Amino acid sequence: MPSTDIANVEKLASEFSANTHSEWKTAAEALLKGAPFDKIMLTPTPERITLQPIYEPELLGALPAVATLPGQDGFLRGTRTAGYLAAPWDIAQEISVSDPAAFNAALLRDLGAGQNAVSLSLDGPGSLLLDDATAARTAFKDVLPGALSWHFHAGTRTPAVAALFIDWLAEQKANAATVRGSLNYDPAGVLAATGVLDIALDKACDNVAALAKLAAAKLPGFTAIGVVTRAYHNAGASAAEELGTAIATGLAYLRVLGERGFHIDAAAAQIAFHFSIGGNFFVELAKLRAARTLWARIVAELGGSPAAQAMHQHARTGLLNKTRHDPYVNILRTTTEALGSVIAGVDSLTVGTFDECVRLPNEFSRRVARNTHVILQEECELTSVIDPSGGSWYIEQLTDDIARKAWEFFQKIEAQGGVFAAIKSGLIQESIAATRKEREKLLGQRRLSLVGTNQYPNIQEEPLSETGLPPPVASFAPAVETAPALPTARLATRYEALRAAATAYKTQHGHGPRIHLANIGPLRRHKARADFTRGFFETGGFEIAGSEGATDPAVIAKGACDSGAQLVVICGHDEDYITQVPAIAQALKAQAPHLTLILAGNPGDNEAAYKAAGLDAYIFVKSDNYETNRQFLAKLGAL
Questions:
Q1: Domains of the chain, each with CATH number or no CATH
Q2: Contact 432, 237 (CB under 8 A)
């Protein structure tokens, strides 16, 4: 900006006095017109953090962010001094193809289209069948080992898979020093996710050390041990629970390696963190920033060097907020999750496909996910800035808040005896279950939104073709260690069950479960309540039929009886309800006493009078949307 413009801006600013926080709050309270400030303006989160309506520069004085730089000082602002200027994050996409030959074709195609890393799932739907040297040769044919980074997820099979990969590299006469990636052996994560380990914990810990030694000798560009938070995140964990569990797991592996002869620097170098990312943009961004500071603190306390304190950080978009209905909205969700991860400064990133909770991803959905990276790198120019969120009053405060809450959860785990003991006792699972229950409650009340599921559903949508996921791979290994298993709990699942019930009802009856809108008066008098009712019940798969507004109770009642619907909702203005609802209810029940009559709106002091006239129920903004839909579907026999 030219100096003359700066002078003009400064002159203009000097003509206005700065408002104090007290003055702002007074003005805000006046606009609320008596509504409680704390209830309206303060926002609680699952992390038990209260988000403020406004953040001010003074708070930075009490936070460490003021004195930190990228690549230094606990790595709050990233582990690399130059951010992504030297090199962008790795585009580490998954290819859910089980046949080795088909996997190879897809991998070569995707590498030629912008992907520069691969996340190989060997323990989930669509897992690559990598059982022997022949399968490895087929799956990786014509792939230059050093041209991409490799991230394996093989559960307890990790030692065997690592041996196969090392043998393949030897066959290719590859320079192992140029090959980068992660093996992600995480027995704690396997135990939490599945509830079983097929080997004893002490043997699993021996494998941790053995793999670390193998990687140091044969795969110097790899980390052997993974702290994979997918199971915790997808079970409904808060950011604090996920992060607290992650650093407790990382500390457990540092102890395992230290007890088996590793120096702290060598041990820390073998651990990578794979976080899942959810839909709360700023909370998830802050979680990744906080993770680096907490890990640096732990490694430093154990005597690790500044370089060893840097966290190897990967992110993957989560499943908790993904939906089967209106699945293309998942593209928006994964895009914002990817953006938050990149702004936070991750080293590598996997963007899930929009259809991953419906079917095995195809070439199109993989392309959309892959190109999310490309757009962020090439068009949004996020590789041209260093820590763009650094210094934000809100983000710095939120980062500090999440770090503190995560540390509290970490201390609970440590008090239990460490992460393995906390998993086996169920402490972590019980805490996450309580958080998930609260999330489901908020979703049912529509205080938490999933577009296309509990808000703005489209019951006319055509489902994706090729639907269906293969069943989980059955394990016949003996359960040597057991623990309560964490569920994979997409929040939309309960609503999807309602929609499935409504679809089955339609198949049986030739139409979906029906609701008739008994509208009172002209459009301007009933439209708001009619629109509310339509959105409220379409989340359960109901077919909503409107009617022309009328004022004659007999006409309204006849229209409802003639509609063929078993549920009738009166929609109108509060002023009209006082005189019309009793008469409509009496007329309707006289003609069709079997019909269920519902009022759109809170009847307040008139509830007893309306029910005495024949009203059966009412809905309003505070009604439990999920439970109400469930009850009425059950009443119709759809559930």
A1: 64-417 (3.20.20.240), 495-635 (3.40.50.280)
A2: yes
